[in-house]
Amino acid sequence: MSFINRLKDSLSKTRQDLAEKIDSLVTGKKNIDESLYEELEEALIQSDVGAETAFNLVDKLRIVTKENKISEPGQLKPALIKIIRDILEQEESTVFFRQKPTVILVVGVNGVGKTTTIGKLANYLKNEGNKVILAAADTFRAAAIDQLEIWGNKTGVDVIKHQEGADPAAVAFDALQASIARNADILIVDTAGRLHTKNNLMEELKKIGRVLAKEIPGAPHEILLVLDATTGQNAINQAKIFGAASGVTGIVLTKLDGTAKGGVVIGIKESLDIPVRYIGIGEGIDDLRPFKAAEFAQALFYADIDSNNIDSNKDGENL
Ligand SMILES: Nc1nc2c(ncn2[C@@H]2O[C@H](COP(=O)(O)OP(=O)(O)OP(=O)(O)O)[C@@H](O)[C@H]2O)c(=O)[nH]1
Ligand SMILES: [Mg+2]
After folding, report:
1. 265 assigned to some structural domain
2. What is the pLDDT of residues 104-149, one digit of tens each?
3. For 31, phi and psi rounded to 5 degrees?
């Protein structure tokens, strides 16, 4: 199945919660009134966009409705979709290649999918023609190092590692040296969601950043924060905490497959000024893709997407 169809499948529960609820709210109504706006706000909150974002979306909808003299309740849905799509829209979705090697530091709380994302990303970037190296700077468990090595074998990418319990910054340093020596295009650094030491995780991540920057000014060029979509609003809170503390430059949203909380991406985009770089829709090697606003909005609202013509709008609505 194509990625877009799998994305559409992944978002089916969110779509039922959000798009179909909006449909049922506007169908059969004669007028647009305050209670309809309140019901729409409630539907948005329930699909995990977050209370604040739901409030802002409906506020924008009121303004658009007024400005465009919309009087039919049925016209609210395309207007809302357009507002959502404008929020999702961003300039650049894939990681920036600044120099050789470009260093990507991957952070996030434990279990969100960092290591799996790195495996998939290594595969994706390698297929784009890059020489990739991985750094096992999650030294919290021996199994974490093994897990990264398995991805290294699967993707045919070198993994630089130390022993369990080693200093993560030392692993990152060695991996950067190896990347320079082996003429790699990209170094991806895996990190832990928890630490052996009493050190603060954020301080540890900053230390890794400092060590990398000493060797290559400007590194790490990307700090990708991995968030688990199934945690809904928690994911937004994590983004606020990590974003402020560790200079996150992009988000990877994992586990969109099967969750009803896909609306969280709207909340992330609306409440934070951090681009969503990639989305994960499964545990397999091909289950990661750059985030594309139009594709995502389509998959979120329409069950029957034409994968060859993603920007065309089957309802003739003005997306
Ligand atoms: N369904 C689904 N599962 C995923 C996805 N991404 C990761 N997982 C699963 O989530 C679990 C945790 O993934 P890891 O990659 O080990 O997460 P982590 O953030 O590295 O975890 P720690 O190293 O313990 O901090 C694994 O079982 C993965 O297979 C995804 O997009 N969809
Ligand atoms: Mg891990």
Report:
1. yes
2. 999 999 999 999 999 999 999 999 999 999 999 999 989 999 999 9
3. -125, 160
Q: Which atom of ligand 1 is nearest to the CA of 140?
A: 23
What are the residues facing 223 on neighbouring strands?
Answer: 105
Count of domains for the chain? 2
* CB distance 237 to ligand 1 below 6 Å: no
In a domain, 58, yes or no: yes
Cis peptide bond N-terminal to 78, omega within 30: no
Task: Return contacts of 15-21, CB within 8 angstroms, 24+ apart.
Answer: 15/262, 15/299, 15/300, 15/301, 15/303, 16/260, 17/43, 17/46, 17/47, 17/260, 17/263, 18/43, 18/44, 18/47, 18/263, 18/300, 18/301, 19/77, 19/300, 19/301, 19/302, 21/46, 21/47
> 137 with 37, same domain?
no
**Could you tell me if 182 and 156 lie in one domain?**
yes
Q: Do 122 and 49 share a structural domain?
A: no
Q: Is any ligand 1 atom within 6 A of the Cβ of residue 119?
A: no
Global pTM reads 0.90
Nearest atom (ligand 1) to Cα of 288? 31
Domain that holds residue 221: 102-299
Of the residues 45, 66, 91, the one at which a domain ends: 91
Give the Cα separation of 2 and 86 in Å (integer).
Answer: 25
